[in-house]
Amino acid sequence: MSAPIVKVSNLTVSFLGGPSPICAVNGVDLELEAGETYALLGESGSGKSVTLRALMRLNPEKKTRVEGSILVGGQDVMALSRTELQAFRGKTLSMVFQEPALALDPVYTLGQQIAEAVAIHEGVSQAEGRKRALELFERVRIPSPERRLDAYPHEMSGGMRQRAMIALALACKPQVLLADEPTTALDATVQIQILLLLRELQRELGLAIIFVTHDIGVAVEVADRVAVMYAGRIVETGSVRDLIRNPSHPYTIGLLRSRADGALQKGARLETIPGSPPDLANLPPGCPFAPRCRFAIDACQTTTPEPVTIRDGQIVRCLRVGELEAV
Amino acid sequence: MLVYLTKRILYTIPIVLGVSLVCFLLVHLAPGDPLVSVLPPDASEDLKQQLLVIYGFDRPYWEQFLRWVGRALQGDLGYSIASGRSVTTEVLRAVGNTLILASVATVIGFFFGLLFGFVGGYFRDSWIDKTASALAVVGVSVPHYWLGMVLVIIFSSQLNWLPPTGAGPGASSDWQPDWAHIRHLILPAVTMSVIPMGIIARTIRALVADILSQDFVQALRAKGMGELGVFLHIVKNAAPTALAVMGLQLGYLLGGSILIETVFAWPGTGFLLNAAIFQRDLPLLQGTILVLALFFVLLNLIVDLVQSLLDPRIQRS
């Protein structure tokens, strides 16, 4: 195994400024090989997007406290100076946002926005940047690319905008692509197209992708490995195959059971996870999932579970993991 | 673009007609006799009738209106009842003086308004923002005629640095670009600039704060752009709205402030309007209002056109 391209250890992110700090991420470890696709799965507020933004140091610096270490392509992200950070963002690591309609500047043409990114990192002329933009538009298969370069974001459909966003993210040939729910704002049919495009680009360019989603189906579609996040922690991680066949954390089990697809008969009730996620400003002392967990015992309320490796590559944070496997 | 331009210009024709009708009606609907200021109190009924015929006030309103519009189209706004001089000449001279005052006030007001707005919005909640916001609130809230008088008390009466009234030495109403005239300009221009400064600063600050909270700003940083570049993007995003506000403010300033021009006895349109109203000088009043209204129409047209150039989301066809 070569050295991982992304290595995050014990990352914690908390937002200050409120009456008490909000602990959005509480000790996340993750490793990503070059060319690998890693999905961060979790519900709203589980800390997946915050983790992603922390990798780029995009969280507002004054109001956020970030601890732990982040290494991307051998660079210590936490130690980068202002100018180093600018050279790093978009070049080593770039990002596709959830809602392309909001993430693209409305008063610049798409061509200008891509050319600008190329100009920042490679110092080339506008014409050169435009040429690159045209190649990228062809690559992400935007029809009549020449004409679309001069289009403004509002003149394109959602799917085309997301393609343009991906083209923008790839403008400077990054090593790692961060995708923050890139298909959530799109129609189901367009979602598939974008996922296929991402997978294809990943293979062709040897990209490593960290893919944030709340949709298990999407995670299974794109990822090699999946990490399930809950209350700012990764509660279970493993290969897609292991996770689907042998979900070992009660939360993962709950998530898999609460899908509407599969053999759900008419009239049958959808299984759900009772309760709601904990208040991040006031986390319980033990396992954050314990109040909603039907397997919880007294120890779960007081002890924070440590990660346990149950098989090669599958790691679970649950006190009762051994017993549950027998269930 | 050309189609949009032509359309937009054609639209102004009904607006201008409507505006002139309103000008005419407003003045005529007001109670009182237009000739009372020129006639001696003991004038005979005969003389009164004679004058009514001379000025055309005996005609039905629609005929008076059509005649007035017809002459106005040829650049003739009639003659002032009080002074007997051509209204066109009077108004144009006043417009010239107001333009000088307004443009200086505009430059000062817009400069500080934009500066406070952009800086305050960008460094939100910092001490710079708080100072700028406080100044803006003061600018919007302080009654400007009061501010004018206070400035006169301080800089003219107490310190004796600047002249309190008039457009130039010896009550001249023809402006010259020399120091003696500039000295007369400073106090009214500063007073006048305070309002647009406050309004622009507040609007821009809110606008910039709103733009900063949008996703694309983070996306710009995510592609490695420095803060200066991000700021320039914000400026371009804010420009259409900023222009609309500035256009409106410019319109108000060009309209001349009756209060400020009266406080400083500045011989501009506001001063002229004031005089026309008090002397019940109908032709002068109508003419001045019409010219001011046309200014607004023209200014809005320009702002619209510039906006459509800057913001691609505004339909151009």
Molecular structure report:
The complex is a heterodimer of chains A (327) and B (317). Chain A has helices spanning 48-56, 82-88, 100-103, 110-122, 126-139, 145-148, 158-169, 188-205, 216-222, 240-245, 250-257, 298-302, 321-326; strands at 6-15, 22-32, 37-41, 64-72, 75-76, 93-96, 176-180, 208-213, 225-230, 233-239, 308-311, 314-316. In chain A, helix 4 crosses helix 5 (126-139). The longest helix of chain A has 18 residues, at 188-205. The model of chain A has no long low-confidence stretch (mean pLDDT 85). Chain A is built from 13 helices and 12 strands. Chain A is 35% helix and 22% strand. In chain A, the strands form 2 sheets. An 8-stranded mixed β-sheet of chain A has the order 6-7-8-3-9-10-12-11, sandwiched between helices. Chain A has a 4-stranded antiparallel β-sheet with strand order 2-1-4-5, with helices on one face. With 317 residues, chain B is an all-alpha fold. Chain B is globular and about 85 Å long. Chain B has 12 helices and no strands. Classes of the chains: A alpha/beta (327), B mainly alpha (317).
Strand order in the sheet with the most strands of chain A: 6-7-8-3-9-10-12-11
Oligomer: heterodimer
Q: What is the terminal separation of chain B in angstroms?
A: 6 Å
Shape of chain B: globular
**What is the β-strand count of chain B?**
0
Strand content of chain A: 15-25%
Uncertain runs of chain B = none
Biggest sheet descriptor of chain A: 8 strands, mixed
User: What does the main sheet of chain B amount to?
Assistant: none
Amino-to-carboxy terminus distance of chain A: 34 Å
Strand content of chain B: under 5%
* Structural class designation of chain B: mainly alpha
What's the overall geometry of chain A? Answer: globular
Order of helices and strands of chain B: HHHHHHHHHHHH
Order of helices and strands of chain A: EEEHEEHEHHHHHEHEHEEHHHEEH
Most residues in contact, chain pair and counts: A-B, 34 and 20 residues
Helical residues, percent of chain B: over 70%
What is the residue-mean pLDDT of chain A, rounded to a whole number?
85
Supply the number of helical segments of chain A: 13
